[in-house]
Amino acid sequence: HLYLPRDAGGKVDLLQIFRMENGKATAEAPAKYVDSCGGCDALADYVDHPSDLPKVTPDEFPKLGLEVDPAQWLQDTVAINALRSAIFHKVAAELEDHLLPISKRCRSRRPALCKTALRAMAELADADLPSAAWSAHGAEMTEACLGAMQVTKVTAKLGEETLDAVCRRLQAEGTTGEVLQVLCKLQCPEVRHPACVAAMLRVMGTCLGRASSANLPSDILGLDCLDVVSDFCEEIMKNRRLSPAFSEARAVQRLLPERR
């Protein structure tokens, strides 16, 4: 450890070791939030439950762009936590405009931002938003959850929980068949990772379970959807690299005949 780089305070400089940008709270962070919440510290870290976030009631919420700048991870965390606070405290805001920008932050290599974005997505799934906002970006949001599963073990668990919440909302706004087809047709790199595929199959099983418990007609999924899901499971079973997901694929296959 004697040869590790150190910062000005004499401590081991992890940012330099891992070649990461030094994100600091600057004037670029929304000034209104800094003033109203006693500084960025109140919103600049991951908070598990929005009730622990300070109530923010500014006239204008910070805008999250579609382009993600890794150096701005702290400002993004502040902005997303402010929106989470707005959702919890029912502060009027154009929340649907933030769905896609928040989903893009789920892939951040910064665990605080990644987890904050995932929590915000799950909370938005329970918020009162227009159905069009979900149906338009269903694939992007599900891909974002899968991407978050590759950041850390903690984000992997949180990513699966968020994926289930997003699919539950998509299922409520559309049909079970549409949700299953979105999952089966994803083209992101994560669909080749065993842990991500297993998580996706577990969520697919949950979707089928919700449809079954709601006593929906057996033909509501449609034969095309059943064929797509069945073929998807078969392709997984043929790939030895995805062997950790075989049991989940079999579980989904067992559910399909019950829907015919």
Plain-language structure description:
With 260 residues, the chain is an all-alpha fold. The chain is built from twelve helices and no strands. The longest helix has 21 residues, at 153-173.
DSSP E strands, number: 0
Strand content: under 5%
**Order of helix and strand elements from N to C terminus:** HHHHHHHHHHHH
The rounded distance between the terminal residues' Cα atoms is: 62 Å
Topology:
Blueprint: H1 14-17, H2 31-36, H3 73-88, H4 99-105, H5 111-125, H6 131-135, H7 138-148, H8 153-173, H9 176-184, H10 194-213, H11 223-238, H12 246-259
Helix pairs in contact: 3-5, 4-5, 4-7, 5-8, 7-8, 8-9, 8-10, 9-10, 9-11, 10-12, 11-12
Question: Can I get a quick summary?
Answer:
The chain has 260 residues and is mainly α.
List keywords for this structure.
55% helix; 260 residues; mainly alpha
